Amino acid sequence: MINDHLSFLPLDTKAIGEMSGNLYKSLAIIGRRANEHTLELKDELSKKLAEFAPAYDNLEEVMENKEQIEISRYYERKPKSTQVALEDFIAGKVAFLDPHETAL
What we know:
There is one protein chain. The chain is mainly α. It has one domain (11-53, 62-91). It is built from four helices and no strands. It has helices spanning 13-20, 23-51, 66-77, 81-91. Helix 1 crosses helix 2 (23-51), helix 2 packs antiparallel against helix 3 (66-77) and helix 2 packs across helix 4. The radius of gyration is 19 Å and the shape is elongated.
């Protein structure tokens, strides 16, 4: 489960760096995983919101769709992608290869 207070806890940067051999490499991996997670959430949200989109566009009339608002609020409450990526990396759920170290 996601720890809601992870962003307030001190992290052992040496341990995070040792997981990939370099702290900066670890941060790059976490950043890429966060971007992947963000894109997954964006696609998922777009699909759900499209289900409730009106069939017509009327610029003069703005309608509030309660279902769309509830879905948006649900996604706003979810943990941030960087937090999810950091927890995945620490738990060993992120696989990564260094193209400079692998033989062709």
